[in-house]
Amino acid sequence: MIGSLQWCRPSELRARGIVGMNQRNSAYIARYNDRKLYPRVDDKYITKELALEFGIKVPELIGLVRHQHEVKGLANLLAGQERFVIKPSMGSAGKGILVVVGREGDRFLKPSGEALSLQDIRRHVNNTLSGLYSLGGRNDKAMIEEAIEFSDVFDGFSYQGVPDIRVIVFQGYPIMAMMRLSTKSSDGKANLHQGAVGVGIDIVSGKARSAVQWGKPVLQHPDTGRKLAELKVPHWDEIVELSACCYEMTELGYLGADVVLDKHKGPQILELNARPGLAIQVANNIGLLPRLQLIENISRKDRLLRTPQERVAFSRKHFAET
């Protein structure tokens, strides 16, 4: 049954509770996400500041470049930094994220092995500031973050880059999850649009359900050969609870929480998304709609009174391997 959604007719998809983009946009994003709150997740720097205020763990910020004249200071900012990530504060779909995993002399090494000069780094930051990667092409900021050192438990499951976990949170309830595993073709980035592998994860156990790459079912990691069915995410309870807490932080009713697992610091929120994609349904081989409707049937009063821990317990009870 792995990946069988790929071959379903539209009528079958509806019968299986698959949410399409139009339905997601009108029935869930427009209804449950107040647009005035979007900057809390669209601007990753604001997200980071907000998360720290709420006591939610995030990767450490090395530096923030706001203006073109600050670019010449990159040499000092990056001095002694072996591993780091540069990303646009208002980027989307993984665009403009530059991952550096090591250095050789004055060269910076990408996960693919490509070496970059300091001038290449400066050019990338300049492009970021000019809005090349940002939503709507607006002028942006360049965030330089500490690179995550992922746990040995993921050896063979990801190609050099850091795997992350996407959790869909609806009205504060975690309802579906997947893990995104970087590949050589995705250049070390955990982005499905660039060729990363998406693995559906059981919301209760943290175990793999099924997996896809480029929308097609896969059983092994394309670069390492590791069997994806063997994947089990550690610290799963903490990851799901961390995602649920993002509801209070953002006040967004329909949310995608991206979590990374650092070898030494544990689960951390990488970023949040007010318009999470729908490929998570293909990765899990199940539809979102039955879970969304179950949460909608809970009275508003009950939803508001429940703590993140109580919401997680509800999800664990109702969404086990379904």
Sequence of strands across the biggest β-sheet: 12-11-10-9-8-13-14
End-to-end span in angstroms?
13 Å
Count of DSSP-assigned helices: 11
Total number of β-strand segments? 14
Estimate nothing, just give the exact number of structural domains: 2
Shape: globular
Strand proportion, as a percent range, falls in 15-25%
Radius of gyration from CA coordinates: 19 Å
The assigned structural class equals alpha+beta
Which stretches are low in confidence, meaning pLDDT under 50 for 5 or more residues running?
A: none
Helix and strand run: HHHHEHEEEEEHEEEEEEHEEHHHH
> What's the CATH topology label of the largest domain?
D-amino Acid Aminotransferase, Chain A, domain 1
CATH top level of the largest domain is Alpha Beta
Mean pLDDT, rounded to whole units?
Answer: 92
CATH-derived architecture of the largest domain: 2-Layer Sandwich
**CATH-assigned homologous superfamily of the largest domain:** ATP-grasp fold, B domain
Indicate the percent of residues in helices: 25-40%
Largest β-sheet summary? 7 strands, antiparallel
